[in-house]
Amino acid sequence: MANKESIEKRLQGNLRRFIIFRLFYSARFYYPVLTVLFLDYGLTLEQFGILNLAWALTIVFAEVPSGALADIVGRKRLVVVASALMVVEMLLLVLVPMGASALLFWVFLANRICSGLSEAAASGADEALVYDSLKQLGRESEWAQLLEKTTRVVAIGFFTTMILGAFAYDSEMVNGFVRYLSIDWQFSEQMIVRMPIILTLMTALIVLATSLGFYDIDKSALAQAKLQAHESGESLNALRDSFAQIAKAARWIVGHQFVLFVILVALALDSVARQFVVLASEYYRSIEIPISWFGFIGAGMALIGILNARLSRLMVSHLSPFTNFLCLSGVLLASLLGVMLAIPLYGVLFAIGAFAILGMVQFQASFYINSAVDSKLRATVLSFKGLALNLGLGVASLLYTGLVSALKRGEIAATLPTQELQGFAFVEALKVFPLYYLVLFFGIVLLAFVLFPRREIFFRKPRPLV
What we know:
mainly alpha, Growth Hormone, Chain: A, 0% strand
């Protein structure tokens, strides 16, 4: 009895640690100054583009195998690996000498690869670990509430991070604050450039400590037989098992049309919304918003996540999956139609919809998939979702790049001064966003009604959650 109570207490501890892990894992103080920081280290814009591509490709190739490994060798182990990689990626940037050099690029490349591997390792493994903790406690019906609370806490943390990150990158503000404290010390420009990285390294250490404290649910009685089989050599090695797990999960997804539908819907919504969000700073500049406001706008967008969490829980509790798809599609289309007008200053209001969609898609996709998937495949299936979202973003980015290139070679562009060409191509490309999403929307609707014979589940209203 005492042992059972001890296990229950540690399982409950996993719930708290999940919130802490998500909070500090997303607390990246360099986000509000990401591009500027890379350039101030000594990189070129071309190198910055190559590094972002390397980051995205790393996630795509590692996403599903890491999820499969989580289901096989243990979710906690993958979460710890993700945390350790976060520490390594920050250490690389803290220690690398600044200034343009071949070494600088290769160190940043290693940083991006570590970051991508960390994202892939964490994706799905932390959710699977915590959802199964709730399941063992007999409280899986509380998953939506836990997601809401986590989303709310992370949104507040991200808001704080955006403000502090921008503050830490301003030498006048930092040194002025030091003087206000009557400290006889001034930070150099190089130290100011590294400041957001140093702050993120501190949060990475907190993430690592938190991950080490998770209760390893794979050592519980429900999973003991599986672990013993691995330890006794009755199964193949973990790498070969991971590929078998991937194939098994892929067959499971294809055979479970509802989960496939959720993943496709998430891909469509997320790819278009995220493509705009990646370009948000250029949009702000095109609608004449001062650069000094960017950090505060980003922080404000983060606060929207607090409202999104509550709204998303109500939606999955009272509306059918297909109705939620229509609602989210309506919000995204309204946002994209407003954004393409590029209204000076007030156009920022239309950007809210795109930012809101990202959090709501993540919440609802996580809720529906975790509710439907078998525990043994949970992390792998969630990794397929992550893979789909990254592939969707990659395709959207590729199409956008081709569109901008074509616009720059067009007849109208040929009459414009060079300094106006970039802004013209950007604003014109915004007009294609609603059309692109409509193509994806009708494609998914057609697929659901023609190819899915058991489509009634898409319209089934859930029982309201407490």
